[in-house]
Records
---
Amino acid sequence: MTWINEPEFEGSDGREIVSGHTLIATVYNTTDAHLIAAAPDLLAACEAMAAQLGGGDNFDQWEEAKAQLLAAIAKAKGA
């Protein structure tokens, strides 16, 4: 699932969080919009890291989990 943070409409301060053609939320604070849009990515990254902390020993899986986590953090920060 991917949530996208995009302008509500041109000239608006509002941001729409959408998944496909489904409106998830409309927010008027850019920081909140970034965090809401990143929620599914943050959850997936946390799940991947939790799986590795549970005893994973595959270096490639660790690197993939780390990459997911860093990408989710960047998305939450609006980068």
Note: Strands lie at 4-7, 15-19, 22-27.
---
Amino acid sequence: MSKSRARAFVRRLGVFALIVAVALLGAACVPQESSSTTAAGDTTGTTAADGGTSGSSMIITIVMYAVVIGGLFYFLLVRPQRTRQRRQQELQSALSVGDEVQTIGGIYGRIEYFDEETDTAVLQVEGGGKIRVARRALANKVRPKG
């Protein structure tokens, strides 16, 4: 399975999990029918079963919603972003002079040198021209054909 198809599958799975979680939490919010008996000696008309369960069940429901939504945010947004950042950091540390690279703008070139002071790289492009790009603009290392 290709990466793009796998990502699309994971997104669909996440949306499905969100829908199921909301449905389950919604079902948990529906009050349960119970027999209402008046406590002995109670003249206010309140039942013994109403002792405060509705307030606590509402808090539990809100906490469950927060946990589910927080988990989905983590697995669908935060975790993939951290993975991309880690891969980009590994690429940046692995680059050296003489490597053939591609910039995020699609320019191909060979690294001539790095300027550590300004955090840039000078690339020699086809035709003998040189350009200076930010080091973070180097998207990936190009593998030689063959």
Note: The beta strands are 100-103, 108-115, 120-124, 130-134, 138-141.
---
Amino acid sequence: MAAPRGSFSPPFTRIEPSRVPKEAVLPVGSHVIVRPPAAGGDRITLTAEDGTTALAAVKAGAEVEITAWRPRRSGPALYRVRTRTSGKEGWTTASSLERLPPPPSPARPAAPAPSPVGKRPAAKTTKRTRTGARAR
């Protein structure tokens, strides 16, 4: 049932536009590489969940594992990452991360030698007449 509205109520015309992701969406549990910061330098800072308290610095090119994800209304989503070598943990944005390059395709194995084709014995079949009786 619709709620009664007086003439002083504004119409319900506010429609939220759908959010188009501007950054990559990375799955929890995946392994990614730390991307060099756009401002220059060779390290990114891992922060606490509030995004302001610095916890550790990680060198660009280091492989990390995504352990958690946190959406935010006021900014890009945060990803909790842990380095594979030293175990440093902290939060960063997807702009600081990139997917691992795909593994190189394996060399094509040599085609197996064709097997000799031998004659198989013909299968015995029985013919049926129109009445369904077997003919010999």
Note: Residues 30 and 128 are 63 Å apart (CA to CA).
---
Amino acid sequence: MNKNHSVIAEFSIVPVGSGETSVSRHVAAAINAFKNMKGLDFEVTPMGTILAANNLDSIFEAVRQAHEAVMAKGVKRVVSTLRIDDRRDKARKMDDKVKAVEEYMKEA
């Protein structure tokens, strides 16, 4: 995931009322729904998925596809959280944000 993007977002999706305490099956369905989208990179983390694209529309489309995929598994309610960092003064990589923090940590 070394592509430069202007929009980086953190997305999490939780099925409500599925009768299970594990959400892994539903998260997998959500990610499979958008994993072939052109212009979208993503990284699954333990607490959410990082999405990266060149525009907001791609981010919103990925979230929409994820919602539809989870609903298609019979879930009647889905709760999602989406945090968006839309920086237009320079292109970035997902790793750039982490590396910047790590550099400051070395100084402390």
Note: Residues 7-107 form a domain with the Alpha-Beta Plaits fold (CATH 3.30.70.930).
